[in-house]
Records
---
Amino acid sequence: MFLGYNKLMNILDEFDTIAAPATPMGAGGVGIIRISGEKAFEIINKIFTNPEFEKGKFKHGWIVDNTGNSPVKIDEVVILPFFAPNSYTGEDVVEIQCHGGVQVVKNILNLVLKNGARLAEKGEFTKRAFLNKRMDLSQAESVADIIHSKTSDFAKVSMKNLSGVLKEKINDIRNDIFEVLSKITAGIDFPEDVKEPEYDYLKERFEDIISQIDKVLKGANTSNIFRQGASVAIIGKPNVGKSSLFNALLSLDRAIVTDIAGTTRDVLRETLDLGIPVTLVDTAGIREDEEVSTVEKIGIEYSKQSLDEADLVLFIYDASKGLDNDDSEVLKLLERKKHIVIANKADLVTERSGDVLYISALKGEGVEELKELLKQKVCDINPENLDFVTNTRQQECLRKARASMEQALLSAQLKELQDLISIDVKSAILALDELTGELITDDILNNIFEHFCIGK
Ligand code: GDP
């Protein structure tokens, strides 16, 4: 069931006061407990030695438990008051900054709960911020992205969404669609007074809207790589230097390097931070050989599987021996896969040829160049030029909107009844409203916030 804002606001009226630690549970300088809701100040006034708060002024004092015969001091704290609607959630919010120990945070939280708050669910503070219109859904989702960022680059681009870059772009596109829809509707509703828009005008507008959607979707693959990381498999025959390259890229000795063919029998995985998280997979040498041991065969199967799963394959051969038939067979497997051909052991050759990257894994030559090339190949666009970060849910909404606009464009080309065209145009608007959260199901909403942590 879809809920409009009004319905959501009714649910909001029933909201109780929630509390949770906003900092991770562990030993640290400070611990923060956040309370949000109508009773936030009522609760803090019952347990704080220095009540009565003013806007923008923090207060120092003690948290005390007054439930027994005599008051018990729990901790010395600083209180930050935020009055509705000027808070993260849009409700009254109180943040208690106490000493950062697991037990002291627990003691204060228990006291807050005893005095009328309920433990917040995952992402409930941000969910309230969204329901109170402090942010749209794309901003709320970026909060989770920022918290879970695996690389500093992703944290930076997610920040763009928090500041509303995606939200503004989607609103612009929606406004453009709405403007055309208004013209179509006016022509239909008041045929005597308003002329229906020309089909050429409609085609031009629809094409422009589609290209705007494409601009946002352009970063989809790179966004997904940023979020999930890219899987990069290193393949090649035994002894060409796969493990050596694996180690050189990671600057460690994780893989066992020997000169006996077939030493890498299992698949090794390590994560490399290239601005995007890259999972590097060192596979067993690919070869169809009757005499290989069972263990090695399993390893070979793994490498074919890794090949299927990989976003990019680093195909490596021994430059001192050149490309042989086996290498060419493997290269055929890679035809439809993004790949880089690497000639290793470049230190052993004097002549270089072809469209391949020469490196020496042993000496570390060409490794930095390879990292750069790898990043370029994996991402469709340079992460630094990534204007719009989207997640798969948002991409699905954008694709739905795009499909509806494509249909509308086709109908305009065929000069179909504008009444019919308006149906597709309206569907495109609904898809964008789903993206920003103007129109959203309860299930989708819960699913989004389930991926948050408690206290956010
Ligand atoms: P793998 O079986 O493909 O994983 O190959 P290894 O990484 O185990 O390397 C096989 C042998 O080639 C080892 O003796 C390495 O020291 C050697 N080797 C690897 N890379 C280079 C290189 O760039 N130059 C030279 N000269 N030897 C290398």
Note: The radius of gyration is 29 Å.
---
Amino acid sequence: MRQTIRPAGPLSGVVVLPGDKSISHRYAMLAALAEGDSRISNYSTGADCHSTLGCIRALGIGVEEEGATVTIHGRGMHGWNQPAGDLDAGNSGSTIRMIAGLLAAQPFVSRIFGDESLSKRPMDRIMKPLASMGAKIGARENRFPPLTIHGGRLHPIDYTLPVPSAQVKTSVLFAGMFAEGETIVREPIRSRDHSEIALREFGAELRVKQRVITIEGPAKLTGRELVVPSDLSSAAFFLVAALLVPGSHLVIQNVGLNPTRSALLDFLLSIGAPVSTPRIECVNGELIGDIEVRYAPVRGGVIERELTAALIDELPVLAVLGAASEEGLAIRDAQELRIKETDRIATVAKNFERMGIHVEVTPAGMNIPGKQKFRAAAFDSFGDHRIAMAFAIAALHGDGESTIDNAEAASVSFPEFWSILARF
Ligand code: S3P
């Protein structure tokens, strides 16, 4: 699908976004292991979170969907059936890595695969810790999907994450629910803590002390009513749009503001963006609130170390903002960007080139000079949802009509993106 984007006038009004992708995956997987029903409202409409629902259904768990409300009929920690066929994780790294921790503990063999992009993403980061808990996992070239998981009895481990990854942390904690005793995960840098919050909400015994998380197994989970906040990583596109187009003023409602995710707002504030959160409340252990943003020129700056990890999903659209900023933007320590749905350093640079934006690419980041002119261009998503949306936002600031090929990729996390954008 090709989308055409014309330069926008000021963006103003209220924006309502779909549910958070990270939280939706976790709620669905834990609900599928809980005793009794869970009702999850504002479940992500994205294809990735539907890949998770597809896997759960294939494991014999009842799932009903009514709009964005999902009811999951959990059958307890030992209620999953061996799937009749292979499990399909689609494009979703979160699905395959997190559910692998649960499949590793099942008394059956399962096989899980993904699309072309997922088939190139490394799984050894979860295979190693799960193997040291006693799971046997086979993979293409010992590293890539499909994974064949010979589940069984697991024992607890004390594991220091070699990469800052919430997906890996979650995979080990999820497996730890089935191991008798204390499974400990140590993080080099604090990553998003939705799993820790969700595990507690469902009734697991979990302790967090700085960057050390301990889960007590065996866990027992109880079904519940949950509300998913709207996705801050989706909000990022509209925050940047408002900061690119003079005169804009947006309010984005009921967004997840978990402190391990909201570095985006702190970063925007630090470079001079008028961003505020006039209302915040706590729902199911997660902070939710409205974000208000007005246009202002932003300074630019440096994103490195912990900040890079905290902004990892927002970097493509922040790179776009960097090219319009006063002083430019340097992104460092972002080697993880190279193994996302695409090599996002390469795909951002390719689209920048098409619009005449200068960028110096480094092995783990990029240096983007500021105050650059955005020329209209023919972009490609390269099959990556965040690249499709980041360059649709760039196109709003272009000097004419731009196009985005393979625009349907946005549906992976945000199917409503194009219709919301069309309002402006
Ligand atoms: C996610 C963690 C991050 C992020 C991904 C979602 C999660 O991946 O990029 O979009 O929900 O835990 P890593 O764990 O690979 O850093």
Note: The domain at 3-18+229-422 is CATH 3.65.10.10 (UDP-n-acetylglucosamine1-carboxyvinyl-transferase; Chain).
---
Amino acid sequence: MSSLTRVLYPYGNDNYGVLLHCPETLQTACVDCGDAESTLASLQEKGWSLSDIWVTHHHADHTAGVESLKQATGAKVHGPNRSETPIKSVDHVLTDGDTFDFAGRGVQVIHTPGHTLDMVNFYLPADSVVFTGDTLFTLGCGRLFEGDAPMMWKSLLKLSALPKDTVIYSSHEYTESNAAFALTVDPGNSALRDQADGVKRLRDANKPTVPTTLAMELQTNPFLRADDPGIRSNLAMEHASDAEVFAEIRRRKDSF
Ligand code: ZN
Ligand code: FE
């Protein structure tokens, strides 16, 4: 089985979409679609036709283009569909632990509520890649719009448990601001300082900081490091639970 070709493309203010293409079956999936024009332009540039649309959550910057993209391509839409926050174009409703097929490999559905309650992430073990939507960003995590901190911490633990060489695609270019914030809670972390320098070089060259890897995030992303003694000591929270430390880091980021 040959590996999938991945294409990252920007849209909107700071969103990223991804195309996944199988050179053998010629199937192509896209992750989210806030803007059908951008997705169609990327498909056209590669000469690929879309077979599947994977939706992470109901926010408009991830779904506004889904219906017209579906109409234009005939692709099948896989995604969550909570009655409170419906995504009306969804053909295949996903829940936690589901596995579905794409181009002969399994796509595992990981429910990661917190940013929204419907959030799902897509993990492809055969390709060592996960699409984390607005749950886990490079050096950051999503804001808690619908869930609470203990819920999000639990969701991040699910992602942290994936193999360390997993490649992580998230949906926004927020990394420079995330790096600046991360240094305020974890200034003694030399891996983080190096990563912040690397991020600045990439952004100065107008290059994306997505994807990242789980190994890198476990070393540098404060939202995965609530158990780190250095961070706990900086926050004077040595005796708090990991979820409480996570909540404090998230609270500080909200007002950063
Ligand atoms: Zn969102
Ligand atoms: Fe978003």
Note: DSSP finds nine helices and 14 strands in the chain.
